[in-house]
Amino acid sequence: MSEELLYEGKAKKVFTTDDGSVLLHRYKDDATAYNAKKRGSWEGKGRTNATMSAAVFAYLESQGVPTHFVEQVDDVSIKTKRLEMLPVEVVVRNVAAGSLSRLLGFEEGRKLKSPIVELCYKDDDLDDPLLNWYHFRELGVADEDLAFCEELGLKVNAVLAPYFDEKGVTLVDFKIEVGRDESGQLMLADEISPDTCRFWDKETGEKLDKDRFRRDMGGVEEAYAEMLKRVTD
Ligand SMILES: Nc1ncnc2c1ncn2[C@@H]1O[C@H](COP(=O)(O)OP(=O)(O)OP(=O)(O)O)[C@@H](O)[C@H]1O
Ligand SMILES: [Mg+2]
């Protein structure tokens, strides 16, 4: 097998495969936050992120959302299509938290009137800033690609908010990435996991995501295990 490390990210390693159009993503137990200023690691994280991403991508595909997902290979690895990534992080929010609370002065937990979509520039040196369409044009990102990102974000939210609600979880917000395949089609890429979403228990409000790590709340391993259980049960 011609497995060559293509990219080592903070949370996973991405390898080439025999098939030039397919990649292998192997999820690590490592975590970073605040643009890698804070680091940690816990048992089972890679398994949760790989398995939840696989289950959620498969469900999104069944609901008509194009994704890069091919198959889950083992506990911590999935195969995906190889894409040319847009330098964009698409954030969709249903409830105020994190940077939106700071931006608008909203108390964390305030329900938004309707979902808010934000487009951020994927650039660690700049701390992934929130940009508008004029900025993206200057960076060479096409308007039609930005329009796709916003529509995709809203569609993913419309599918996943009820999906998680049924599992007793409020989808507070999430980040997705978008890429283009060889034929030119744009689709959902990267991962959907407690690293990239805020999940709050619907009844108790308990946080079941990476905020437990960011904010040193403890119980992070248990929270990831609980989310894996809710998605796979
Ligand atoms: N289908 C795909 N084809 C090509 N690259 C992809 C695909 N899906 C995801 N990627 C890219 O692979 C990398 C995954 O690495 P990882 O998420 O570990 O680190 P990171 O994104 O650099 O850091 P962080 O997520 O902590 O900001 C990202 O650069 C992501 O954009
Ligand atoms: Mg990433």
Care to describe what's here?
It is a single chain. This protein is of the alpha+beta class and 233 residues long. It folds into 2 domains: 5-81, Phosphorylase Kinase, domain 1, CATH 3.30.200.20; 84-219, D-amino Acid Aminotransferase, Chain A, domain 1 (2-Layer Sandwich). The chain is 30% helix and 33% strand. A 5-stranded antiparallel β-sheet has the order 1-2-3-7-6, covered by helices on one side. Strand 2 (12-16) and strand 3 (22-27) form a beta hairpin. The protein is globular, with a radius of gyration of 17 Å. The model has no long low-confidence stretch (mean pLDDT 97). Adenosine-5'-triphosphate binds at residues 7, 9-12, 14, 23, 32, 68, 80-83, 85, 177, 179, 189-190. It catalyses: 5-amino-1-(5-phospho-D-ribosyl)imidazole-4-carboxylate + L-aspartate + ATP = (2S)-2-[5-amino-1-(5-phospho-beta-D-ribosyl)imidazole-4-carboxamido]succinate + ADP + phosphate + 2 H(+). GO terms for molecular function: ATP binding; phosphoribosylaminoimidazolesuccinocarboxamide synthase activity.
